Automatic annotation (TrEMBL):
It holds the Pfam family TMP-TENI. GO terms for molecular function: thiamine-phosphate diphosphorylase activity. The keyword tRNA processing does not apply. Gene3D superfamilies: Aldolase class I (3.20.20.70). The keyword Chaperone does not apply. Residues 15-186 form the Thiamine phosphate synthase/TenI domain. InterPro entries: Aldolase_TIM, ThiamineP_synth_sf, ThiamineP_synth_TenI. It comes from Winogradskyella thalassocola. GO terms for biological process: thiamine biosynthetic process. Keywords: Thiamine biosynthesis. This is Thiamine-phosphate diphosphorylase. One of its GO terms (cellular component) is cytoplasm. Pathway: Cofactor biosynthesis; thiamine diphosphate biosynthesis.
Length: 213
């Protein structure tokens, strides 16, 4: 499966708001969305994930489930994204369908190398910019992205994340980063998806999509 160049990371004040925002993202042309729920029970996560799968299936949008690989398998999402504190990708892989993908979060070159060694399918490298959400982690910026991209020998897609706006995309791509994951900027203006896709040259009609048998 080709990894989309634009990932929308869902947000919302309630689980239902996450669904509303996923629907808006799909309507606006998102090719991949990550359902990113925190502080909810597994039962609630599964309920919302099933609803998200219905929405994304209708729009032929790829769905990634954050952290919970069992739910990703249950709802037949395209894959799971594992945070640094989550279970190891090598443990998760045998429990997923063969066509499902695994992404991982990295903050450093060493994190990236570890995820590559564990056969993650893509890496989200963060933060590009610092924010109150990740204030304990130093912003990588363009210099950090360039240094890590130059040091890595891999064909795995590296996706930038961390308060990225459309103004940042061109410079980020020049560092060797493959694409971007965006939450705030898209949630504030879903029409920006079209601009992100244009800057990333991520045409929805130009990518191969997985179809279920």
């Amino acid at each position: 499966m080709i990894i989309s160049k634009l990932h929308y990371i869902s947000q919302g004040n309630t689980p239902e708001a996450h669904l509303e925002n996923i629907q808006k993202a799909c309507t606006s042309g998102a090719e991949l969305v990550q359902l990113h729920l925190t502080d909810v029970s597994d039962a609630k996560y599964l309920e919302i994930a099933k609803a998200a799968r219905e929405i994304t299936f209708h729009f032929q949008t790829r769905l990634i489930i954050n952290s919970n690989y069992k739910i990703a398998k249950d709802v037949k999402a395209e894959g799971v994204h594992l945070e640094k504190s989550d279970i190891c990708p090598t443990v998760v892989r045998p429990d997923l369908y063969s066509w499902q993908i695994i992404g991982g979060t990295a903050n450093t070159l060493e994190d990236c190398e570890s995820l590559i060694a564990k056969n993650s399918d893509y890496i989200i490298l963060e933060p590009f910019k610092s924010s109150t959400k990740n204030s304990s982690t130093k912003a990588l910026g363009l210099d950090g992205y360039t240094a890590i991209s130059n040091a890595l020998i891999t064909e795995k897609p590296i996706i930038g994340f961390g308060d990225i706006t459309t103004d940042d995309v061109t410079a980020i791509l020049e560092t060797g980063i493959s694409g971007v994951a965006v939450s705030d900027a898209i949630t504030e203006n879903f029409d920006s998806i079209k601009q992100f896709n244009l800057l990333l040259k991520a045409s929805a009609t130009g990518e191969i999509r997985h179809t279920f048998e």
